[in-house]
Amino acid sequence: MLRRITTTILAFALLMTSFAISTGKVHAQRDTTTIPGTWNTAILIRNMSTSSASVTVNFYNSSGTLVKSYPTTLLGNAAVNVYVPGLTDLSQGQYSAVVSSTQKVIASVQTSSVAQSSAPWTAFAYEGVDSSNAALKLFFPAEMKNFYGFLSEIVIQNTSDSTSTTLSADFYKADGTKINSSAISLGTLTKSTAKTYAMNDTLFSSLPSGSSGLFGAVITSSSTPIAGISNVWRSTPTYMTASYNGFSTGSTTLYAPNLMNSLYGFGSALSIQNVDQLNRAIGTVTYSSGLVESFDLAPNAAKTFMQFNRNDVTLPSGNANGSFSATVTVTSGGGSIVGVVGFSRPPELNGNTTRGDYAYYNCPSVSSTTVTVPSVMSNFYGF
Question: Is the separation of the CB atoms in 192 and 60 below 8 Å?
């Protein structure tokens, strides 16, 4: 009897005790991350069915060669934590992975620094990408190039196991102006491989830097569906890392369930992007406090709304009231939006001292009576 295979693509080139300290070299595309540090990765996979699932994790190197298959069986609703350094026959390095299962699964990827004697001491995470959500075009609403010290890199994975593709990138300001006059070629991405594209590489020398170095990105694949994530980090005055998933489609409604303003020193930023290629996205950001802000985004344009250090609007703040939510709605124009929320403990809220706490999440576009959280920790190796 034929069995239906559900595939989840893990869109990050997985890290296993791989030194990634910058050497000052510049690259058009990279096989490894540019984030300073030594990193380990764990993949948490949960079986969403009540039936037993046969699961296989395939690891690929930068040439697209299958270097390791990890089979396991998951009982109904069970989960497994695949600690990549525990796979002793997989050498140190950076990999991409594909999780295949006979039942529907979800997966999250968690990466943490491992050196106990030197910085950085930090971690970041993202969600595995279901194969049905891979696409020819991906959107990233919050890319940075030395934006108050923050840098971004985009990691793209070719989900085809048989065909290469050619990638290109375009970048947009908040007003919809395309920063690069013509598409930036990212080269060829062979089957089953992942490549890293850092905003501080010479390939992206035309992008603005500093206080204007915040923009939206669109990555286009010529022939095969791709999956991708963005890693964002800062190395001075303290180490901070975070990650979010790229988007393949948008909607007319987004939810930001957790925003912060001076909550124990935390502040948030909501970044949205119009992913429609023809129509403007005109709408509102309605906060749970009642405040309403408006937006008018041209195709591909991205805009960021800060929830802290604002002089033009009043938002709830402080430890008692500084946690709130928002609904983002397209009311006219025909556009479609995506969004992410970033959290940090900025100097403005912490006595002019920058703290290392940093995180991102993708804004959901639908509500549900059931929400699955694939990974929850309580003092799990310090997490």
Answer: yes
Largest CA distance in the chain: 65
The answer, yes or no, to whether residue 147 has pLDDT greater than 80, is yes
What is the distance of C-alpha 69 from the center of its chain? 25
Q: What is the pLDDT of residue 15?
A: 45
CATH number of 253-362: 2.60.290
CB atoms within 10 A of CB 202: 9
What does pLDDT average to over the chain?
A: 88
Structure tokens at 354: 């920058």
226-260: b or e for each residue (b if 16 or more CB lie within 10 Å)? bbbbbbbbbbeebbbbbbbbbbbebbbbbebeebb
What pLDDT digit, counting tens, does each position of 56-96 carry? Answer: 999 998 889 999 999 999 999 999 999 998 998 988 888 88
In CATH, what number does 6-245 get?
A: 2.60.290.11
Does residue 374 surpass a pLDDT of 70?
Answer: yes
User: What is residue 33's predicted lDDT score, i.e. its pLDDT?
Assistant: 77
CATH 2.60.290.11 spans which residues of the chain?
Answer: 6-245
83 CB-near residues (< 8 Å, 6+ apart): 40, 42
Q: How many residues does the chain have?
A: 383
Residue 248 — very low, low, confident or very high, per pLDDT cuts 50/70/90?
Answer: very high
- Of the chain, the percentage scoring pLDDT greater than 90 comes to 63
Q: What is the amino acid identity at position 305?
A: F
The pair of three-digit structure tokens given for residue 72, joined into one six-digit string: 């396991």
Spatial contact of 157 and 246, defined as CB atoms under 8 Å apart: no
The CA distances from residue 110 to 17, 24, 40, 70, 203, in Å, are 13, 27, 8, 18, 29
Say what the pLDDT of residue 289 is.
97
For 274-314, the DSSP string reads E--SSS-EEEEEEETTS-EEEEEE-TT-EEEEESSS-SSS-
How far apart are the C-alpha atoms of 119 and 235, rounded to whole Å?
9
Side-chain half-sphere exposure of 254, counting CA atoms within 13 A:
27
Cα end-to-end distance, the chain, whole Å: 43
Q: What is the pTM of this model?
A: 0.91
Token reading at 348 = 């403005």
SS3 116: coil
3-state secondary structure of 349: helix
